[in-house]
Design a protein that fits this description.
heterodimer; A: 257 residues; alpha/beta; TIM Barrel; nine-stranded parallel beta sheet; B: 417 residues; Rossmann fold; 2 domains; six-stranded mixed beta sheet; four-stranded parallel beta sheet; 15 helices; 45% helix; globular
Chain lengths: 257, 417
């Protein structure tokens, strides 16, 4: 089943889906594994596995430092892929995606990377510094290996731009709830509601909404307006402050369980 | 310029615009504004007039008679970008973008800076045009370049030390982009060099082409002929592209770009992308070029005695000119740079910046082998006297140290420590 169909099937039984995120190797692959277990057992639908990059231009301070810390501890791209291969086997109920910056893919070899990821069961890729205009080969390889290249809608996207971009993507659309980098609070206000309306009318793909979501209220607000809530920086902060065991209860609470 | 690839913003294999989707609209508007002024002759005239009135342009082409005699080869000419207001070629790009910002109707500018030259130039431009101004600067550079931080703040800019990554120029660029993705409605990012996403390489090269336009006229007037070679240091590459453009079409003029050889290109401590073996094709900071990176694609730490050359990437335009052989790349070590600086000061009474001194190194290697009827031009991108802390440190000057220690003791006493 492709990613879009899987998400639509899940939506028949849930008011909203949840995608979480972590930086591989931060604070360690062992902790990553435990965090993923907590997420999976509490009903997370998708997990972004971020492969660290030394120049994470679109990330805010928390994820930026997690990238650096992981690299300082010596994480390599090959370690990330091996870890992902194990995790996908261990938690078949979750859709795993790679999130990284384009240089990691480019340097590894685009076809080797996408083919290799597809073979271990990765469902798609989120690459924030690769607009479709620069991603011709990435998009055609994604088609070839049946992985989903996730596209972005943002508050600055014109309707024309959204219609162009959504045709090139699959899986779901990553909707940026506000301008700026990851990790800052988003006001759940009228302007967000207006953005979500215009996002909805521009595509039939599921809408995932991220950037600054951290509470049950944030998630509840999105029910009926979006298809999937994205939690990024909040779980990294949680693991930093309270350890991996706090993740399960946090996820359950977000989903109102 | 060689725009072989049909895709916009590509120079051979290099360039492009690898930008987050949230900046798509901002770049669309920037491209439109840039193309409008590019096609508007009155804009260029306004720019030239402003630079004449505010920044001492045209800068002289100085015949270095004593250096010429010293080496006994080619006649050595020096293009004096050091005589720009704020002391370096950076002013050209910054004032040009300032005029563009005025036309776009934005009220705030942000910039990255390494050594501080581009930051000081941007803060100066912002003061002149009445823009709010924030400068991102790696924490390590803030510590190394305190006098420039002082001037930026006095000129009214907010200087934000960047504490992430290697805390140098590339991290300041990342941080400026992070500001921009939230502030693009009111803010223009004044990128300081011929790097980054399209249209920056092309646009900054255009503003800097004023150097080459002048130098071409000046060498014909003074020497009567085209030069045999033109030398420029290459960090991002803006001063080099600026002067090279005046001679690009003259195939007989050799164009020589000199990179930071640091402690030697065989060591891990340099910033040479086109010479040496540590660079590879990559995509970062919004563009594709040769980056100093490891096998995984992680950027490497770089080193140079000259903070302005201490950078992982190189202009996509220069990478292409290197591929085609139009530009010859060389590297100068920190030690060679100090020797060339010392010789230039003693023989000509001219103080090049440490960055610019890299170009002097290679010119001094080549000049003695050349015919006395030939001429060469060295682009002196900036002046060294305002970097007195860095240069005095590099010379390990005992009387300077004594002065600093004395001044520190005075401050300690007066602050009651």
């Amino acid at each position: 089943m492709n990613l879009t169909a899987d998400l639509q099937k899940r939506l028949q039984n849930k008011p909203i889906l949840l995608m979480t995120h972590l930086v591989l190797g931060y604070p360690s692959l062992e902790v990553n594994r435990e965090v993923i277990r907590q997420m999976a057992e509490n009903g997370v639908d998708c997990i972004e596995l971020q492969i660290p990059f030394s120049e994470p231009m679109a990330d805010g301070p928390v994820i930026l430092r997690a990238n650096q810390d992981a690299l300082n501890r010596g994480i390599r791209v090959a370690d990330c892929i091996q870890f992902a291969a194990d995790i996908v086997q261990e938690f078949p109920q979750v859709n795993f995606l790679f999130m990284t910056y384009y240089n990691i893919i480019f340097r590894y070899g685009e076809e080797d990377f996408i083919k290799g990821a597809a073979e271990i069961g990765i469902k798609g890729f989120i690459v924030p510094d690769l607009p479709p205009e620069e991603g011709e080969s990435y998009l055609s390889l994604s088609k070839k290996y049946r992985t989903a290249p996730i596209m972005f809608f943002t508050p600055t996207s014109t309707e024309e731009r959204m219609r162009k971009v959504e045709k090139m993507g699959s899986g779901f659309i990553y909707c940026v709830a506000r301008k700026g980098v990851t990790g800052k609070k988003t006001a759940m206000d009228d302007s967000l509601a207006r953005s979500l309306n215009s996002y909805r009318s521009a595509t039939s793909l599921p809408l995932a909404v991220g950037f600054g979501i951290s509470s049950r209220e944030d998630v509840a607000m999105l029910e009926g307006k979006a298809d999937m809530a994205v939690i990024g920086t909040a779980t990294i902060r949680l693991v930093d402050n309270q350890g991996p065991a706090a993740v399960g209860p946090f996820i359950a609470e977000l989903l109102g369980h | 310029m060689n725009q072989a690839n049909s895709k916009r913003g590509y120079f051979g294999n290099w360039g492009g615009a690898f930008i987050p989707e949230v900046l798509h609209q901002t770049f669309t508007e920037l491209n439109e504004a840039y193309l409008r002024v590019r096609g508007d002759e009155t804009f260029w005239q306004e720019y030239v007039d402003l630079m004449a009135n505010y920044s001492c342009r045209p800068t002289p082409l100085t015949f270095a008679e004593n250096l010429t005699k010293h080496f006994g080869g080619a006649r050595i000419y020096i293009k004096r970008e050091d005589l720009n207001h704020t002391g370096a070629h950076k002013a050209n790009n910054v004032m040009g973008q300032g005029l563009l910002v005025k036309r776009m109707g934005k009220k705030r500018v942000i910039a990255e800076t390494g050594a501080g030259q581009h930051g000081v130039a941007t803060a100066t431009m912002a003061a002149r045009f009445g823009f709010a101004c924030t400068i991102y600067m790696g924490e390590e550079d803030v510590a190394r370049q305190r006098p420039n931080v002082f001037w930026m703040e006095k000129l009214g800019a907010t200087v934000v030390p960047v504490t992430d990554g290697s805390r140098t120029l590339k991290d300041a660029i990342n941080e400026a982009f992070r500001d921009w993705v939230a502030s693009m409605d009111s803010t223009h990012y004044v990128l300081g060099t011929v790097c980054g996403p399209h249209p920056f390489p092309e646009m900054v090269a255009w503003f800097q082409s004023i150097i080459g336009q002048e130098a071409r006229k000046q060498i014909l007037a003074q020497h009567g002929n085209m030069p045999a070679a033109v030398y420029a240091c290459v960090g991002g590459g803006s001063n080099a592209l600026g002067i090279f453009q005046g001679f690009m079409a003259e195939r007989a003029v050799e164009l020589v770009g000199v990179e930071a050889g640091g402690k030697g290109i065989d060591t891990d401590h340099h910033a040479s992308r086109m010479t040496g073996t540590r660079a590879a094709a990559g995509v970062a900071q919004g563009y594709k070029t040769m980056f100093l990176q490891d096998d995984d694609g992680q950027m490497l730490d770089t080193h140079s005695i000259a903070a302005g050359l201490d950078y992982v990437g190189i202009s996509p335009i220069l990478a292409d000119l290197g591929d085609s052989g139009r530009v010859r790349f060389e590297a100068a070590t920190d030690r060679e740079v100090i020797e060339a600086l010392e010789l230039t000061m003693r023989t000509e009474g001219i103080i090049p910046a440490l960055e610019s001194s890299h170009a002097f190194v290679q010119a001094f290697k080549d000049a003695p082998e050349m015919n006395p009827h030939e001429a060469i031009i060295i682009n002196m991108s900036g002046r060294g006297d305002k970097d007195i802390f860095t240069i005095a440190h590099a010379f390990d000057d005992p009387s300077w140290k004594k002065f600093i220690i004395g001044r520190a003791q005075e401050y300690r006493k007066s602050s009651g420590e």
